[in-house]
């Protein structure tokens, strides 16, 4: 394919505005997938994506399209919409020259529409605004066009009104992609320069790297080198994604495809790496900013004998999701494990679910925490350490305030877009989360965009749920990193029958310690099942108990329910009880359900 007939583009949007549905239609129109049967979110391959109806991993597909007698190769990269996966979006964009910015005709511009628009705008990509779902009864394309004009300075004449569901006007979208998005500015005469923008691990074939060619060409038998590790490989297969892997003879500059080159170790295909010919080293392309984890949690095998299996599953999954950071860790109760860093809570849940579904690995996650910092002061420390900043990703390692001159907490700048009737409730919610208002503008007559500075800790667990429920689902939320600010922090222990539980240690703002401690005890009381003895649940700051709840003893005799001697029924009940137990972990002598660690942090 001549480079001038190639277009690399991405679809970006707020969650549920219809990216995946539009991608399905584009695949159908170009004959990439058949129109018989019902194609639904074909690019959402992962089981977790299908179950949750969200896109987690960006996926790539090459489409062939004839426009006015010329054949074009269109490389489409589907991207996830949720805030936690923004990292995937910016990664996908580095392989593109343009984007379709999809906005729901009913909901209008939402928080992630704004965030994604700026990602594309800053990357200097061509932006084609697409207003989707015009078939809906309440669709108001005109209003959305006005918002787009107001917010992004894009003329309403440039907007394409479509229904991805019905296929209305979708062909126009393809034409605009060809006319408005420039071809990649690259040449096959240059030496090979391939950017690894994604990689997956296949049980049979090893590492499969998704690449975008910024120069040269690549084919089976080529000897290539990683600019990052300087290791060399022989290419065994190249191909395009349609969206399944389809081998081809060669990939040329401007194309997007995949490569297999005998990389066995998951660490060999670094996302952001530049591949070149062994004999022709090139200046590497700018890599990606490494993703910055916002939330940390301990992860331990549910069954200690599974440690090695889970270790290899975590390694493989982090290759596919490079935004997860991994440190080895261990806990008295839960044994050897890891401390993982995630981009957000949904990211953490999805990672956990993928471990279970794709690798059959059952793990315990401990309560999530944000990365706090402490500036050390103590004379007790060796002199050089004085004034040094340490990052605390495990609350049980929180340094005592006798050796600290200041604590710092991470903050984020949050964007909320909401119909104005909910403003009052939202302002009140933000106040309870110690947020500081930075901005408030109307994006049309009835919709407002609010900007707030939040302590990150205040939003990770349940802020989004709270916002959704008080606005009947109408408010949307997105956030970006805003650095650190001083905070008055303190460590809180949770005791079960007098024993401190390392996995439940929490760092709190001093002024909130009492409320948080009380809620955590109440939550634990709800989730810890009655056992043979009484259980005291206490929250403590140092040696001072600040809250207490009690779980009364109870003898759960399942067989008492059985009258007479129906042995098969008896066995069934016994089995059920044994299964129930699997989900519990012993802490001291108290059994705690494995999801208790996270649920105790929810405030609503
Ligand atoms: P994520 O992958 O989670 O980011 O969402 P998405 O933007 O890919 O949205 P998706 O394509 O999954 O669509 C979300 C919902 O909107 C689905 O229930 C679709 O059936 C529906 N939908 C998409 N396009 C249209 C449309 O043109 N009209 C109507 N009525 N519904 C649509």
Helix content: 10-25%
β-strand number: 33
Number of helices: 13
- Output the radius of gyration: 27 Å
Which strand-content bin applies to the residues?
25-35%
- Physical arrangement of strands within the biggest beta sheet: 11-10-16-7-8-15-12-13
Identify the quaternary structure here: single chain
Subcellular location: Mitochondrion inner membrane
Domain Tr-type G: 4-185
Function: Promotes mitochondrial protein synthesis. May act as a fidelity factor of the translation reaction, by catalyzing a one-codon backward translocation of tRNAs on improperly translocated ribosomes. Binds to mitochondrial ribosomes in a GTP-dependent manner.
Main location: mitochondrion
Detailed description of the structure:
One of its GO terms (molecular function) is mitochondrial ribosome binding. It comes from Sphenodon punctatus. With about 600 residues, the chain is α+β, with helices and mostly antiparallel strands. It contains 13 helices and 33 strands. The strands form 7 sheets. Strands 11-10-16-7-8-15-12-13 form an 8-stranded antiparallel beta sheet, with helices on one face. Strands 2-3-1-4-5-6 form a 6-stranded mixed beta sheet, sandwiched between helices. Strands 21, 22, 23, 24, 25 and 26 form a 6-stranded antiparallel beta sheet that branches. A hairpin with a 2-residue loop joins strand 30 (about 535-540) and strand 31 (about 545-550). The radius of gyration is 27 Å and the shape is globular. Mean pLDDT is about 80; it is low at about 50-60. The site of guanosine-5'-triphosphate has 21 residues, from helix 1.
């Amino acid at each position: 394919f001549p480079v001038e007939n190639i277009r690399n583009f991405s679809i970006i949007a707020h969650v549920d505005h219809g990216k995946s549905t539009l991608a399905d239609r584009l695949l159908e129109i170009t004959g990439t997938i058949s129109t018989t049967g019902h194609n639904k979110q074909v690019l959402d391959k992962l089981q977790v994506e299908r179950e949750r109806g969200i896109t987690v991993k960006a996926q790539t597909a090459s489409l062939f399209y004839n426009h006015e007698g010329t054949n074009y190769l269109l490389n489409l990269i589907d991207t996830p919409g949720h805030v936690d996966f923004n990292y995937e979006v910016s990664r996908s964009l580095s392989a593109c020259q343009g984007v379709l910015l999809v906005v729901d005709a009913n909901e209008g511009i939402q928080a992630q529409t704004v965030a994604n628009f700026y990602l594309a705008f800053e990357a200097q990509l061509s932006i084609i605004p697409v207003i989707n779902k015009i078939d809906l009864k309440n669709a108001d394309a005109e209003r959305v066009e006005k918002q787009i004009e107001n917010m992004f300075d894009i003329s309403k004449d440039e907007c394409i009104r479509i229904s991805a569901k019905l296929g209305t006007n979708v062909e126009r979208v393809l034409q605009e992609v060809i006319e408005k998005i420039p071809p990649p500015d690259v040449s096959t005469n240059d030496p090979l320069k391939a950017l690894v923008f994604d990689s997956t691990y296949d049980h049979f074939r090893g590492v499969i790297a998704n690449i975008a060619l910024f120069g040269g060409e690549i084919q089976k038998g080529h000897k290539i080198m990683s600019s990052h590790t300087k290791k060399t490989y022989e290419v065994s297969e190249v191909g395009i994604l349609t969206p399944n892997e389809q081998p081809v003879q060669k990939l040329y500059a401007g194309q997007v495809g995949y490569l297999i080159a005998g990389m066995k170790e998951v660490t060999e295909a670094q996302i952001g790496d530049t591949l070149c010919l062994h004999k022709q080293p090139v200046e590497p392309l700018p890599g990606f900013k490494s993703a910055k984890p916002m939330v940390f949690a301990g992860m331990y095998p549910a069954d200690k004998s599974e440690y090695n299996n889970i270790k290899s599953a975590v390694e493989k999954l982090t290759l596919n999701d490079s935004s997860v950071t991994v440190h080895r860790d261990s806990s008295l109760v839960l044994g050897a494990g890891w401390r993982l860093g995630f981009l957000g809570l949904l990211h953490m849940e999805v990672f956990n679910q993928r471990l279970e579904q794709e690798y059959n690995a059952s793990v315990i996650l401990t309560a999530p925490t944000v990365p706090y910092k402490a500036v050390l002061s103590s004379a007790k420390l060796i002199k050089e350490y004085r004034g040094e900043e340490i990052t605390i990703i495990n609350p049980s390692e929180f340094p005592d305030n006798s050796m600290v001159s200041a604590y710092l907490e991470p903050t984020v700048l949050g964007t909320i877009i909401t119909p104005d009737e909910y403003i009052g409730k939202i302002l009140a919610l933000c106040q309870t989360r110690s947020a500081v208002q930075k901005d408030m503008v109307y994006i049309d007559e009835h919709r407002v965009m609010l900007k707030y500075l939040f302590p990150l800790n205040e939003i990770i667990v349940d802020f989004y749920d709270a916002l959704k429920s008080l606005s009947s689902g109408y408010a949307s939320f997105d956030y970006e990193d805003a650095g650190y600010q001083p905070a008055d922090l303190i460590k809180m222990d949770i005791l079960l029958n007098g024993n401190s539980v390392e996995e439940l240690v929490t760092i709190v703002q001093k002024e909130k310690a009492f409320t948080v401690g009380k809620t955590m005890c109440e939550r634990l009381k709800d989730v810890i099942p009655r056992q043979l003895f009484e259980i005291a649940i206490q929250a403590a700051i140092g040696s001072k108990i600040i809250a207490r709840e009690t779980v009364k003893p109870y003898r759960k005799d399942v067989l008492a329910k059985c009258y007479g001697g129906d042995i098969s029924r008896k066995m069934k009940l016994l089995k059920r009880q044994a299964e129930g137990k699997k989900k519990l972990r012993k802490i001291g002598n108290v059994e705690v359900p494995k999801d208790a660690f996270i649920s105790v942090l929810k405030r609503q």
